[in-house]
Amino acid sequence: MGATEKVWNALTAMIKLEDKVSRQSEAIKGQQQKIEDLTARVIRLEAQLELFTAAALVKKLRNE
């Protein structure tokens, strides 16, 4: 194997690695967006639960 072939193989491997890193970066961005969306949904659900719990407590107190 000549020096030129070794250099070529190294450059090819580096380009492939860069492509893999780029694809992983995009995948991570997508996952992060999904996590942020789910976090927002959980916050909304927590707020609704607190409101319903408070409303049930008020209703219970009025009926007593």
Low-pLDDT residue intervals, each spanning 5 or more residues: none
Residue share in helices? Answer: over 70%
Distance between the termini: 91 Å
Number of strands: 0
What order do the helices and strands follow? H
- Quick one: overall form? rod-shaped
Largest sheet: none
Strand residue percentage: under 5%
Number of helices, where a helix is a run of at least 4 consecutive DSSP H or I residues: 1
Specify Rg, calculated over alpha carbons. 28 Å
Main structural class: mainly alpha
- Compute the average pLDDT: 94
Provide structural commentary.
- The chain has 64 residues and is an all-alpha fold.
- 95% of the residues lie in helices and 0% in strands.
- It is built from one helix and no strands.
- It has one helix at residues 3-63.
- The longest helix has 61 residues, at 3-63.
- The chain starts with a helix and ends with a helix.
- The mean pLDDT is 94.
What is the structure about, briefly put?
By secondary structure, the protein is an all-alpha fold. It has 1 helix and no strands. It starts with a helix and ends with a helix.
